[in-house]
TrEMBL record:
Self-interacts. Interacts with FtsZ. Keywords: Cell cycle, Cell division, Cell membrane, Membrane. The keyword Methyltransferase does not apply. HAMAP family: FtsA (MF_02033). Cell division protein that is involved in the assembly of the Z ring. May serve as a membrane anchor for the Z ring. The gene is ftsA. Pfam families: FtsA, SHS2_FTSA. InterPro entries: ATPase_NBD, Cell_div_FtsA, FtsA/MreB, SHS2_FtsA. Residues 24-223 form the SHS2 domain. Belongs to the FtsA/MreB family. PANTHER family: CELL DIVISION PROTEIN FTSA, CELL DIVISION PROTEIN FTSA-RELATED. This is Cell division protein FtsA. SMART domains: FtsA. It comes from Jannaschia pohangensis. SUPFAM superfamilies: Actin-like ATPase domain.
Length: 442
């Protein structure tokens, strides 16, 4: 973990430099769109060493916002670097022009990389008086990191729970006395090439990366309310190329995963099923799409106009019932894969099992009811929290990850590298405890 540890420490220093300057860019590099927001910090506070959710409060306002069609991104990962670089440059330049300020630092999120969650544990003896930040660094560095596999890197490593002696669910152990300090940490690994390719594209745009986050984590930060984060909830971020799954408990992310299907696959099915261009299929999906057909839908006719020169082909039409018949199987497949992911995480063992749908593809009419039937839980549609200065066009579910990244950039949640903890050793022995961790601690 040492190489990434140093890289994340460097990003943290750049984030602090951006906060001191007062301006930073937020970027969500997705399969369908690349969105960029420019934040101005109106009142900066020192980024101290805190423990717990959202340490280091700052106030910010969105002063620039631009969205452009993504190019060169497939299933949340860079597929063609020159095209991705062009999309990033276009988005950043548009946001800078609107904000009338130059931006040097960017905090980005992405949805690919095949994320894998690792629940880990560590413990140390409290040697000198009450628990201090140094003791927290020691217990985190004592955690035995598993063998992530070839070509894998750590994206997030967050302490999610502390315990001292018999007290097992402490949010902040500082100042408390005892003999044995324990820590539970959630580690999220992704494919290294997914990180490296995105960082290369950003650096080619003359930007410094001040932070990197998982899109499912960022989306949940803005779409879940505080009670859901505390009691336990899953956020399903339905994007174009992927569907992100994240589970929060006691205000921390404890699991994340990605389903390799999204709204673009629904569009592709419509395009192939009706023999129309993808752009027309996207428009029809957005305007007429749904998952539950009624008797009225048989009488709603959708014109499939084209300009091929074949009169019969250019003047075709379908009913909304036929359109729903094409869309529903793919959406059911996505939700079934989400259910499998939640089952692997042991979601049904959590005290609260609320599910929140967000992301651009979550806006399909009737999706919440279908999701409730397939996932078997309470389901609601989630919109991102309000942010000062955010344009009306960026307040929908499609911008949940972008808004969540704003909140994380301004109010960072502590991670492993925020405590100056140096990994002491690498071992695979903690794998035997990983399966039991979810059940024993949550």
């Amino acid at each position: 973990m040492s190489r990434l540890f140093q890289a994340q420490k460097a990003m943290r220093r750049k984030r602090q430099a951006a906060l001191q300057r007062g301006v930073v860019a937020i970027m969500d590099v997705g399969t369908y769109k690349t969105a960029c927001l420019v934040l101005r910090f109106e009142e900066n506070t020192p980024q101290g060493e805190g423990v717990g959710h959202m340490a280091g409060q700052s106030n910010f306002r969105v002063i620039g916002a631009t969205t452009t069609r993504s190019r060169g991104i497939r299933r949340g990962e860079v597929d063609a670097m020159p095209e991705t670089e062009r999309a990033i440059r276009t988005a950043v330049q548009g946001a800078q022009k609107m904000a009338n300020v130059r931006v040097d630092h960017v905090i980005a999120c992405f949805s690919g990389g095949r994320p894998t969650s690792w629940p880990l544990q560590g413990e140390v003896v409290l040697e000198s008086g009450p628990c201090s930040v140094h003791d927290i660094a020691r217990v985190l560095s004592s955690i035995e990191t598993p063998d992530l596999g070839a070509g894998r890197e750590v994206l997030h490593a967050q302490p999610v729970n502390f315990g001292i002696d018999h007290r097992t669910t402490l949010r902040d152990p500082r100042g408390q006395t005892g003999e044995m300090l324990r820590a539970d940490m959630h580690l999220l690994s992704v494919d290294a090439h997914a990180i490296e390719n995105l960082l290369t594209c950003i650096h080619r745009c003359d930007l410094e990366v001040a932070g990197l986050a998982s899109a499912p984590y960022a989306a949940a930060t803005s779409a879940l309310v505080e009670d859901e984060k505390e009691l336990g909830a899953a956020c399903i971020d339905m994007g174009a190329g992927t569907t992100g799954v994240s589970i929060f408990m006691r205000k921390h992310m404890v699991y994340a995963d990605t389903v390799a299907f999204g709204g673009a696959h629904v569009t592709s099915d419509i395009s192939q099923g009706l023999h129309i261009p993808a752009q027309t299929a996207e428009m029809i999906k957005t305007r007429y799409g749904g998952v539950v057909a009624t008797g009225m839908d048989d009488r709603e006719i959708i014109a499939l106009e084209a300009d091929t020169g074949d009169w019969h082909h250019d003047r075709r039409s379908v009913t909304r019932t036929e359109l729903i018949g094409i869309m529903r199987p793919r959406i059911e497949e996505i939700l079934e894969e989400v259910r499998k992911s939640l089952d692997r995480a042991g979601f049904n063992e959590l005290p609260s099992q609320r599910i929140v749908l967000t992301g651009g593809a979550s806006q399909i009419p009737g999706l919440d009811g279908l999701a409730a039937r397939i996932l078997g839980n309470q389901v609601r549609l989630g919109r991102p929290l309000r942010v000062q200065g955010l344009p009306e066009a960026a307040k929908g579910p499609a911008f949940a990850a972008c808004v969540g990244l704003c909140m994380q950039g301004a109010e960072p949640q502590d991670e492993f590298w925020d405590f100056n903890a140096v990994p002491e050793r690498t071992s695979g022995r903690s794998l035997r405890r990983a399966v039991r961790w979810f059940r024993d601690n949550w």
